[in-house]
Amino acid sequence: MRVLIVPGTLALLPEYAGADDPILELRAAVGAGVAWLVQDSPGLVGTVAVWGDPLTAVEKNRGLVDPACLRIARALLPGARWVTGAAISDSLLIVANGSAKRTEKAPGHFDERSADFDAVIEAALAAGDPAALGLIDQELGDQLWATGLRALSGLAKLAITRAQLRYAGDPYGVRYWVVSLEAAP
Amino acid sequence: MTLKLGRHEFADDVTLMMAIVNRTPDSFFDKGATWAEDAAFDRVAQVVAEGAEIVDIGGIKAAPGAEIDVNEERRRVVDFVARVRAAYPELVISVDTWRAEVGRAVCEAGADLLNDAWGGHDPSLVEVAAEFGAAVVLTHTGGATPRTRPYRVEYADVMADVLASTGAQARRALEVGVDPASIVIDPAHDFGKNTFHSLEVTRRLDEMVATGWPVLVSLSNKDFVGETLDLPVGERLSGTLAATAVSALAGARIFRVHQVVETRQVVDMVSSIAGKRPPQRAIRGLA
Question: What is the DSSP letter of A161?
């Protein structure tokens, strides 16, 4: 099975597109990752699982219906029928990213714990180390405005056979990763 | 409908900057700064660099003054149009003239657009446009004679008169063979109008837009701005830009301007507020 991890930046959504793309490099990596995800099932129209953070109570009160992870999944692969929270199937998209407090200008301002926190997760992703993903400190992740990390910890028991870190960067003070993982069924 | 300005075409959602280039020794704003041909040519280079899609070349100031006959007007603009045409193939060249004879000469020299700022005073001008496949700007002047100032002009309903006049001119332009994609209408602020009239046509510009003809506005540093704010020429940029914003929101397409950069920023900002243009680059709150 194939797992693709992409960040939850709303800049991936077409309704927030400007004339110039602020995430050109990231978008290219995400596009290549999605192509890889469905490589063995061209014209994918079946059901695909997407994991990410659910709507918060505040978001529900504002009238939002679908969580960002689902809307991002639909934007990336409109042909698929996306379902949130489903069990691991042939293809899985995880919407997650590291700290949003990496710099003074970051959305959550600067928190000195960000660099180490993200580095541990990034190493686990690059190495395809599911056990390390299971050990992510979720409380600290919340404090650092990371998103989707509980979904990432859901990979803890997966037998990962191959991992590729396709992109890592923090152009706006949020740590983005694009990672593809192959796992034994 | 696609807007066709001579050899150039534009989609119906784009706004265009028409930069004023005077080959006159006495125009009110630049006071002869681009009277010399090389100075005017430098002005063209500058406004092109600033992003203007159109230059509007004029050889006679609008206000009363020394008589400029056809031959002198031709001397001022025809060779200059040819020079600009050769240097800037992508640029739309407009010429501000009411005379068909001058219109013919500039079309032969490469003009794309005839800006009939005196409202069809010479009925042959649109025939020249038709003959050459040029576009026309049709203006409302209340029937004023070229180069005269309004004197106690009144209308029961100024916008009704603007719509009737520009509508009649558009029908005639079509009859003589002007391409329907090449007709632009202009309320002509300050022409045959007092300040109250110019403010009203600005306020009601959506009625012109609703006709479906692309609307040009020429607001730049004009007396209606000066009188409204009690400011002399040279201190009217803010007022001009306020009128520009209102016109852009109403749907004006072409802006005839002295200051290209400032006007472009205002028009782009308004277009984005109106939801017609995406922000150039947005990441705030989205990262």
Answer: E
Please judge whether B280 and A19 are an interchain contact, meaning their C-beta atoms are less than 8 angstroms apart.
Answer: yes
| ipTM for the whole complex | 0.88
- CA B3 to chain A, closest CA, distance in angstroms equals 22
Per-residue burial over A143-168, b if 16 or more Cβ lie within 10 Å, else e, is bbbbbbbbbbbbbeebebeebebbbb
pLDDT tens per residue across span B10-36: 998 899 999 999 999 989 999 999 999
Dihedral in degrees, nearest 10, Cα atoms A121, A127, A130, A131: -80
pTM score: 0.90
Measured distance CA(B220)–CA(B239) in Å, rounded: 9
Q: Out of B222, B236, B253, B264, which one is annotated catalytic?
A: B222
Q: Which helix (H) or strand (E) holds A59?
A: helix A57-61
pLDDT of A45 strictly over 80: no
Pick A20's closest partner by Cβ from B277, B280, B287.
B280
Q: What is the 3-state secondary structure (H, E, C) of chain B?
A: CCEEECCEEECCCCCEEEEEEECCCCCCCCCCCCCCHHHHHHHHHHHHHCCCCEEEEECCCCCCCCCCCHHHHHHHHHHHHHHHHHHCCCCEEEEECCCHHHHHHHHHHCCCEEEECCCCCCCHHHHHHHHHCCEEEEECCCCCCCCCCCCCCCCCCHHHHHHHHHHHHHHHHHHCCCCHHHEEEECCCCCCCCHHHHHHHHHCHHHHHCCCCCEEEECCCCHHHHHHHCCCCCCCHHHHHHHHHHHHHHCCCEEEECCHHHHHHHHHHHHHHCCCCCCCCCCCCCC
Dihedral sign from CA coordinates of B21, B23, B27, B33: positive
- Contacts with A10 from chain B: Cβ below 8 Å: 285-286
Contacts of B142 (CB under 8 A, 6+ apart): B119, B150, B153, B155, B161, B165, B191, B192, B193
How do residues A61-97 score in pLDDT, each as one tens digit? Answer: 999 999 999 999 999 998 888 888 777 678 899 999 9
Contact predicate A12/A54, CB 8 Å: no
